[in-house]
Design a protein that fits this description.
With 407 residues, the chain is an alpha+beta fold. It is built from 10 helices and 19 strands.
């Protein structure tokens, strides 16, 4: 008796998944509740477990797209795989061996009506490449031209010009291979959403620059004691998150969204943090960031980043969010125009910190400067609000004491 293992429901909005990897192979003995495969949706990766002990019989292949409830595999009773699975392979080897020994005999039997006649597949290849069938020697039964013969003849024709014209300047040698890879559900969803945002919003970007010296001095002074007390490092993301939550209080439209013909204002700040994961960009959410301390924000960012790296983020951890922060500076980006994370109305882009000469009190000094960019939906956020919001963030970062005093 065998038990069918089906794709389980993984979320209200998810109707299909991709079988990304078999962790157990066909014929393997599995235990009950043992993880046998990984399923990938457009939002997260899930594990498929065995619902009983027995021998695994795979039905779906890696890369297949499966609907919710589709049969992925069967588990048969018994602790060992039957040996008959190898029988077809042995028969195939016998047939191949028989064909290989039969071909030379056929050639020696003399010419027949099949001599020099290409198979349909071989004829198509020869016709596409303009190769005369008479110039190809067939190795099939009675001298018939096989597909393999046509492919080899194509390769010989391609090599001929090189041998015939050695004096001509040759192109630089190098690999010219291509690799095709099916888009993951996550990548396809990201692509669709980004295009939709560009087409459906009146997106605009405004820029400013921040003198990061005050924040860097504060980090340098307290980073050791901060880590000893809280068990986590003091990074830039907590300062930016805290500055954003304070600025959102002054400019609530930046924290709002459009639903139909209404504008929905949020009295809380769920800040989405863009994280680069092995399978693509994910945006986990820090809930109620406006109520958190710098240490709590740093712990949340670290925990979410580790989950993203290991592919363990849940749908709930990536759902929602009222405002997004993305940091291209970790990759060396000097300036960019980030795309809004719909249905949100704004996103803040951080960039790399570069020492540049700036004017302070009539003197030219060297300061660690960062360009910041705010992309926003002009349908809901006016220029005054967008510029005012970015200036407020700049003020808070250049005078970090404001973050503690709320002024």
């Amino acid at each position: 008796m065998s038990l069918e293992i089906k794709v389980p429901p993984v979320g209200e909005s998810i109707t299909e998944v991709v079988l990304s990897q078999w962790l157990k192979q066909d014929g393997d003995v599995v235990e009950m509740d043992e993880v046998i495969a990984e399923l990938e949706s457009d939002k997260a990766t899930f594990e498929l477990t065995a619902e009983q002990a027995g021998t695994l019989r795979t039905i779906a292949a890696e890369g297949d797209t499966l609907a919710i409830g589709a049969v992925v595999c069967k588990i048969e009773d018994g602790g060992a795989a039957p040996a008959k699975a190898d029988a077809p392979k042995a028969e195939e080897k016998a047939v191949v061996a028989e064909e290989k020994t039969a071909a030379p005999v056929a050639e020696k039997s003399g010419e027949s009506y099949a001599t020099g006649t290409p198979s349909p597949a071989a004829g198509k290849i020869l016709a596409e490449k303009g190769i005369d069938a008479g110039a190809v020697k067939g190795t099939g039964v009675d001298g018939r031209i096989t597909k393999d013969d046509a492919v080899k003849a194509e390769a010989k024709k391609a090599d001929a010009p090189k041998a015939a014209a050695p004096a001509a300047p040759a192109a630089p040698a190098g690999p010219r291979s291509e690799r095709r890879e099916k888009m993951s559900p996550l990548r396809k969803t990201v692509a669709k959403r980004l295009v939709a945002v560009k087409n459906e919003t009146a997106m605009l970007t405004t820029f400013n620059e921040v003198n990061m010296k005050p924040v860097m001095d504060l980090r340098s002074k307290y980073k050791d004691s901060f880590k000893d007390k809280h068990g986590v490092g003091l990074g830039f993301m907590s300062f930016f998150t805290k500055a954003v939550t304070e600025a959102l209080k002054d400019f609530p439209a930046v924290n709002a969204r459009i639903e139909g013909e209404e504008i929905v204002y949020n009295n809380f700040a769920d800040v989405s943090i863009a994280v680069s994961a092995p399978k693509g960009l994910v945006v986990p959410v820090i809930r109620n960031a406006e109520s958190m301390s710098l240490a709590e924000i740093e712990k949340s960012v670290l925990a979410l980043a580790l989950k993203a790296r290991d592919g363990k983020l849940t749908i709930e951890e990536m759902t929602g969010g009222t405002f997004t922060i993305t940091n291209g500076g970790v990759f060396g980006s000097m300036m960019s125009t980030p795309i809004i994370n719909a249905p949100q109305s704004a996103i803040l882009g951080m960039h790399n910190i570069v020492e540049r000469p700036v004017a302070e009190k009539g003197e030219v000094v060297i300061r660690p400067m960062m360009y910041v960019a705010l992309s926003y939906d002009h349908r809901i956020i006016d220029g005054r609000e967008s510029v005012g919001f970015l200036v407020r963030v700049k003020q808070l970062l250049e005078d970090p004491a404001r973050l503690l005093l709320g002024v």
